[in-house]
Amino acid sequence: MATQPTPANVPSGYRDVSVPLTQVVIQGTLLSLALLALPIIFYWGLHGFAAFWAGLSGISFITWIAAILAGIVLHEGIHALGWRTFGNLRWRDLSFGVDRATLSPYCHASVPMTAAAYRIGALLPGILLGLLPAAIGILIAHAFLTAVGAFLLSAAIGDFIVLWVLRTIPGGAHVLDHPSNAGCYVLESDLRQE
After folding, report:
1. Which residues contact 54 (CB under 8 A, 6 or more apart)?
2. pLDDT tens-digit profile of 82-116?
3. Which of 6, 40, 99, 177: disulfide with 109, CB 3.0–4.6 Å?
């Protein structure tokens, strides 16, 4: 995925390493669907198709909505906690919102951190809310936990795309979270030292 330079908006001394959220939505849709399907397919393989649907049959619509909304809020909170912990940010350095064009919730860090800390904060929600619950749900034959984990794993597609975009950035480089795209600005001088 190519980065989209925005020279007029790039802070002095930084390089833009980000992608527009609309591009993430367009390019991430198929991968997101695959991430949604994989845990469910594993569940079916171990416990059967009928067991999966039987496990979901008693779950009310309100329970589904509550689980998904809680997962979305926790997802952004875990980004914040990860960046605060590993990037040594303060709570006031973090803000939350929803991108109007894509309806994507976000957590934004307004001060620099290392690329390693940025990656950890980006990866944590997909692991803690998606991969782990889906894996536990598969292991204990809990269809609802598997399905919610699968949904939240697929919802982390933007974070996985950001990790891919940043794959060549050294862990010690200082990055500044992009205010409107998926990704960040990277301090040019840190790139020249490598």
Report:
1. 143
2. 999 999 999 999 999 988 877 888 999 999 999 99
3. 177
Q: Look up tokens 């039987």; give the residue.
A: 54
How long, in residues, is the chain?
Answer: 194
Q: Locate tokens 């925005």: which residue?
A: 6
Q: How far is 177 from 95, CA to CA, in rounded Å?
A: 11
Which token pair is 54?
């039987």
Q: What is the pLDDT of residues 132-168, one digit of tens each?
A: 999 999 999 999 999 999 999 999 999 999 999 999 9
Rg value, the chain, Cα: 18
Whole-Å CA distances, 73 to 24, 66, 134, 153, 184: 20, 11, 18, 14, 22
d(CA 118, CA 96): 16
Two structure tokens written together for 13: 């001394």
Q: Would you kindly state where each structural domain of the chain is located, as residue ranges?
A: 20-192
Query: Which amino acid is present at 119?
Result: R
- Record the tokens describing residue 146, joined without a space: 């598997």
